[in-house]
């Protein structure tokens, strides 16, 4: 293609090029620091950003597994599949979900967390050893499963709003 027919590339200003180069250099300098921090955290007994206090992955799978471990200790029935199915229906896996439109919300007590529990239910069915924060994924799952066990026999028996 002749030079005259080639599309023109917009000119970048010197300032933009300098900032890009400086940003790249800063990232390269920060990499060893980030790696060192992660490596030392992996050998300590404190949790990393990727794990819960109990050492489970800090994601939906880990929260369910940690809750199941607590539930087993407390003899609360439920399975991974039953919990997962209900979480996906209730909150799509968002631990900060809050329902501001249903009848509970109209009464001033909106459903919150992974399994959309209202405050009075969470407080009544809270499981010792878990957080008192309704948005804490493990506390929310475990309290909801405790409630479902008392009302329906197990979270596995819940197939709709409860």
Automatic annotation (TrEMBL):
Residues 80-159 form the Transglycosylase SLT domain. Gene3D superfamilies: 1.10.530.10. The keyword Signal applies. It comes from the Bacteria. Keywords: Signal. Residues 1-41 form the signal peptide. This is Transglycosylase SLT domain-containing protein. The lineage of its organism: Bacteria, Bacillati, Actinomycetota, Actinomycetes, Kitasatosporales.
């Amino acid at each position: 293609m002749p030079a005259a027919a080639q599309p023109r590339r917009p000119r970048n200003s010197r300032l933009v090029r300098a900032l890009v180069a400086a940003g790249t250099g800063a990232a390269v300098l920060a990499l060893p620091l980030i790696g060192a921090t992660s490596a030392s955290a992996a050998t300590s007994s404190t949790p990393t950003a990727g794990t819960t206090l109990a050492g489970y992955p800090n994601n939906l799978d880990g929260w369910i597994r940690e809750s199941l471990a607590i539930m087993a200790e407390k003899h609360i029935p439920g399975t991974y599949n039953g919990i997962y199915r209900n979480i996906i229906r209730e909150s799509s896996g968002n631990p900060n979900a809050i329902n501001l439109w249903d009848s509970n919300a109209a009464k001033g007590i909106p459903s919150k967390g992974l399994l959309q529990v209202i405050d009075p239910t969470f407080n009544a069915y809270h499981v010792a050893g878990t957080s008192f924060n309704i948005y804490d994924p493990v506390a929310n799952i475990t309290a909801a499963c405790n409630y479902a066990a008392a009302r329906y026999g197990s979270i596995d028996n819940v197939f709709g709003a409860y």
